[in-house]
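$ ./design --mode recover --in tokens.txt
reading tokens...
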């Protein structure tokens, strides 16, 4: 499964800071009385730890980062839509998973409510996990309250915002048809005399000529 911690250095830093603050750090392994005397080191790491082990702070931070990625895999496996969670809510759930274990997380009411779409109820359910050995512990109560606050803050910031509706593009105006100018009919000038007058004069001259020829033939 995909790891959001590996994709985002900011998210990884936030998870390490939150879990590290509540787990506390011990550079030398010690028997954790709250966990039945199990050898524990760094930020609550118990896997493969034996009394006498010692680490540097950088080694402890790297160990915590690696452990968080492993716990993240288990946490995501039990969520229907882990990538839909806001970052802060995601980190809060991861913090409690690291603290109570993947088995405790997957069987919890936190997961059931989250998968049912009741994320606010899932954040509230964090407060139920404040006991160890059947007793309510002040430290765990404070931790769960801080995780719940972060969880709800993520939901407040992660509310969907209305989509931005882009205005429809303005229609491209259709250019008006360009009317071609009507070219004027130009007639050849006839020295300023109308063509009809010239035609009439010519006709008179022709008729006159014919009459003159006929008259001369009669006289002869």
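writing sequence...
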């Amino acid at each position: 499964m995909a790891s959001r911690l590996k994709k985002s250095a900011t998210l990884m830093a936030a998870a390490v800071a939150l879990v590290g603050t509540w787990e506390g750090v011990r550079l030398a392994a010690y028997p954790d009385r709250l966990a039945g005397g199990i050898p524990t080191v760094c930020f609550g790491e118990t896997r493969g730890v034996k009394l006498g082990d010692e680490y540097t702070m950088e080694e402890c931070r790297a160990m915590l980062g690696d452990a968080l990625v492993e716990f993240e895999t288990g946490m995501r496996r039990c969520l229907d839509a882990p990538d839909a969670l806001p970052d802060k809510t995601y980190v809060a759930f991861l913090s409690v998973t690291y603290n109570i274990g993947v088995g405790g997380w997957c069987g919890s009411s936190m997961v059931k409510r989250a998968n049912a779409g009741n994320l606010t109820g899932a954040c509230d359910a964090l407060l139920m996990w404040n006991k160890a050995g059947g007793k309510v512990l002040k430290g765990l109560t404070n931790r769960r309250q801080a995780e719940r606050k972060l969880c709800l803050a993520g939901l407040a910031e992660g509310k969907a915002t209305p989509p931005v509706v882009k205005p429809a593009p303005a229609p491209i105006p259709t250019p008006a048809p360009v009317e071609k100018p009507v070219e004027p009919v130009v007639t050849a000038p006839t020295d300023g005399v109308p063509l009809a007058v010239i035609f009439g004069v010519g006709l008179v001259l022709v008729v006159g000529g014919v009459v003159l020829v006929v008259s001369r033939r009669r006289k002869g």
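exit 0
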